[in-house]
Amino acid sequence: MSMPSSPHLRALCLLLASVVLGGCSSMRSTSDRLFGLITPYRVEVVQGNVVTQEMAAAVKPGMTRAQVRDTLGSPLLADIFHADRWDYVFTIRRPGAAYQQRRVTVLFDGDTMKSFEADELPSERDFVSSIDTKSTKGAKVPTLALNDEQLKALPMPAKGSIPEPNSAPQGPARDYPPLEATP
């Protein structure tokens, strides 16, 4: 792109460009909306293993590596230079929910678990409620059964159109052999 030859026109273009670029930094408001109308897509990022209080309570010193893996899952970090250390790191960035990050470290002595170190871990119920962005609190829960008045309002089928529970099956005679041999 070539610059205009007039010094006044050049200065005007530079001023206009600086105003436009300066406005780009102030487009983002506190509600994360672009120009107050458009909400950009925010990807949900979940990495690592969720370790809860219930899972941590199930892990005891003296367990084998296989037992720890069965309880907590595969570690996110298993370093060949620190073969006796497994790190479980969990992070979640979810639109509408608070950012979370936790670390759990399991130390081994050979094939036996020696110690377990962790940040403050939530219970399963607390974890689910912390990431729930579509909460049903206050929402009307639909009824799953009909009351007597609704049952009476249903159209009744004609008598004889519903077979009796213990009656022989009705229908055309089959013209193919049965799938299983009958004794």
Tags for this model:
26% helix; Beta-lactamase Inhibitory Protein, Chain:B, domain 1; flat; 183 residues; alpha+beta
Walk me through what this model shows.
This protein is an alpha+beta fold and 183 residues long. It has a domain at 46-120: Beta-lactamase Inhibitory Protein, Chain:B, domain 1, CATH 3.30.1450. The chain is built from five helices and five strands, in the order H-E-H-H-E-E-E-E-H-H. Strands 1, 2, 3, 4 and 5 form a five-stranded antiparallel sheet that branches. The chain is flat, with a radius of gyration of 33 Å. The mean pLDDT is 80.
Tally the beta strands: 5
Rg over alpha carbons: 33 Å
State the major sheet. Answer: 5 strands, antiparallel
Mean pLDDT: 80
Question: What is the level-2 CATH architecture name of one domain?
Answer: 2-Layer Sandwich
SSE blueprint and pairings:
Blueprint: H1 7-25, E1 45-48, H2 53-58, H3 65-72, E2 77-78, E3 85-93, E4 100-109, E5 112-118, H4 124-131, H5 148-153
Antiparallel strand pairs: 1-3, 2-3, 3-4, 4-5
TL;DR of this structure?
With 183 residues, this protein is an alpha+beta fold. The chain is built from 5 helices and 5 strands, in the order αβααββββαα.
